[in-house]
Amino acid sequence: MAFWDDKTLDEMTETEWEALCDGCGRCCLMKLEDEDTGELYRSDVRCRLLDGKSCRCSDYPHRHDVVPDCIKLTPENVRTIEWIPRSCAYRRLAEGRGLAWWHPLISGDPNTVVDAGISVRNRTVAETEVKPGTWEDHIAEWPEWEPPERI
């Protein structure tokens, strides 16, 4: 039995926890909050540390030092952070939905994340390239999209 089927998120080792990340990059997209309503909007703007082609953090070990508001996902907070994409393996497991068919641990291929349309690869703009006053132009619906389950 696979570790993600056999263990709860709380029981996983750090190595197992890190292996759950499919490398899609969606959690590294900037979110915009309406100051009046508190409504959260997702954007196509990536964190300055996220490489737009590889979808990997360019300084993962020090990301919290470089980007102080970078949030470390934990078994506790994946259950409460509303902006975690529905497609996220951590959220899926926390909700009892299991890993999706396109997840590399299921498919055996890291490219199924791209093929399924989950990855942000080549779909984003760097945070450093967004001019002040234009953030609203980058609100995007696709970061919440999730492909259908295979039957």
Description of the structure:
This protein has one domain. It is built from 6 helices and 3 strands. The protein has helices at residues 3-6, 14-19, 63-66, 89-94, 104-107, 112-115, and strands at residues 29-33, 40-46, 125-126. It is globular and about 50 Å long.
Distance between the termini: 21 Å
Instruction: Give average pLDDT, whole number.
Output: 93
Strand content: 5-15%
Structural domain tally:
1
- By DSSP, the count of extended strands is 3
Major sheet: order of its strands? Answer: 1-2-3
Largest sheet: 3 strands, mixed
What proportion of the residues is helical, as a percent range? 10-25%
Total number of helices: 6
Low-confidence stretches: none
User: What sort of overall outline do the alpha carbons produce when their principal axes are compared?
Assistant: globular
Helix and strand element order? HHEEHHHHE
Please identify the structural class as seen in this structure: alpha+beta
Radius of gyration, Cα only, in angstroms? Answer: 16 Å
